[in-house]
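Propose amino acids for all 89 sites.
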């Protein structure tokens, strides 16, 4: 394959979600744990949230930060609301 053909064979990652770039680096076990955590966060109803439901986006962000992954509240919220367009949403 020619050099240009090689470059053009790569699908461009436009607007790549920050959360997705983190997921990319996780091993299978951590990935499963992360997806499980996402489900817990998403499962909360507004009523749960005001009642002190423990699994919040901030809980997830703090856990990621503790492992050296920096992600903003905005990025996480966009991902959780499926506004990021990434394949993991
Ligand atoms: Zn995303």
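Proposal:
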């Amino acid at each position: 394959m020619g050099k240009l053909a090689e470059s053009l064979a790569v699908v461009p990652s436009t607007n790549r979600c920050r959360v997705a770039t983190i997921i990319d680096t996780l091993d299978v076990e951590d990935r499963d744990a992360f997806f499980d955590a996402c489900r817990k966060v998403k499962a909360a109803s507004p009523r749960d949230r005001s009642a002190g439901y423990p699994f919040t986006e901030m809980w997830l962000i703090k856990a990621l930060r503790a492992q050296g992954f920096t992600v903003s509240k905005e990025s996480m919220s966009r991902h959780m609301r499926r506004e990021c367009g990434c394949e993991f949403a």
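Residues 17 and 85 are 7 Å apart (CA to CA). The chain is about 60% helix and 0% strand.
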